[in-house]
Amino acid sequence: MIFILNVSKAETAVNWFRSEEHTSELQSLSFPTRRSSDLCWVEQEIPELLGKAGKKLSGITKLHELRFMDVAKKFSGYTLRQKVEVYGILGGVPEYLRHWDQRGDVKYNICRNILSPDGFLHHKAEELIRSQLRELTVYNTILEAMASGRRKLNELYQETGFSRAK
User: Fold this and answer.
1) Which DSSP string corresponds to the chain?
2) CA angle, 86 as apex, 80 and 90 as ends, to 5°?
3) Distance between CA 28 and CA 42 in Å, rounded?
4) For the chain, what is the mean pLDDT?
5) What gap in Å lies between CA 95 and CA 66, rounded to an integer?
6) What gap in Å lies between CA 117 and CA 110, rounded to an integer?
7) What is the model's pTM?
């Protein structure tokens, strides 16, 4: 889901950004319309950052991801199986779909976009986890233990030393 914050059309972007009501974080934004796929940030942190300046927003618009049929139309040269694979990997996120090279098969694109250290999606999972969780090292340790076969709470505790509270 992508959220777009629109500044009221009655004000120019310059006046909006020069307002004394804005925090330093808001002054670093460079466009009157911002987009984000970070639900937590948009719904929880934006109201805090905006404070009184929030009244100057003309609205928050939620744009949903593309449906399977929309993605399937975009990949007209792919078989139905390949279209399902692409949708299963990327979902309907337009930003991700733009980086997918239709001239290459699914394996090529996974190697290029996900597995390659320079790939567009290579660090996306870590970025998402980092933006949502406060103690990233704790969660990484727990995920590593789970990946090595520990599934029960006691096994995870024995491997990581973290209690249920973590």
Assistant:
1) -EEEEEE-TTS-HHHHHH-TT--HHHHT---SEEEE--HHIIIIIHHHHHGGGGGGEEEEEEEPPPPHHHHHHHTTTS-HHHHHHHHHHHTT-HHHHHT--TTS-HHHHHIIIIISTTSTTTTHHHHHHHHH-S-HHHHHHHHHHHHTT--SHHHHHHHH---TT-
2) 150
3) 16
4) 75
5) 11
6) 12
7) 0.55
Q: 136-151 in b/e burial notation, b at 16+ Cβ within 10 A?
A: eeebebbeebeeeebe
Roughly what angle, to the nearest 10 degrees, separates helices 136-147 and 153-160? 120
Amino acid sitting at position 111:
C
The pLDDT tens digits of the residues spanning 31-66 come to 445 555 565 666 666 666 667 666 666 666 666 788
pLDDT digits (tens, 9 = 90+) for 142-156: 889 999 999 898 898
Structure tokens belonging to residue 114: 């996900």
